[in-house]
Amino acid sequence: MSRRTVIVGLLVAVLIAAVAAVSLPMAASDRDDAVTPTAPARPEPSSHGSAPSTTQTPDNPPSPLSGDERAALAESVSTAVSRHAPGSKVGLAVYDRLAQSIVAEVNADEQFYTASVAKLLIVTDSLRDAGWALPHGQRRDNLVALLSRSADWVASSLWAAGGGPVIVTETAELIGLEATTPPRIARQWEMTRTTPLDVLAVYDYLSTGMPEAAGEFVLNALSEATRVAADGFDQFFGIPAALPDSEWAIKQGWMRVDNGIVLNTTGTVGLRGRYHVVLLTLQPPSTSFATARAAVTAGVAALAPALTEEAG
Question: Where does this protein have compositionally biased stretches of type Polar residues (predicted)?
Answer without folding.
Answer: 47-58
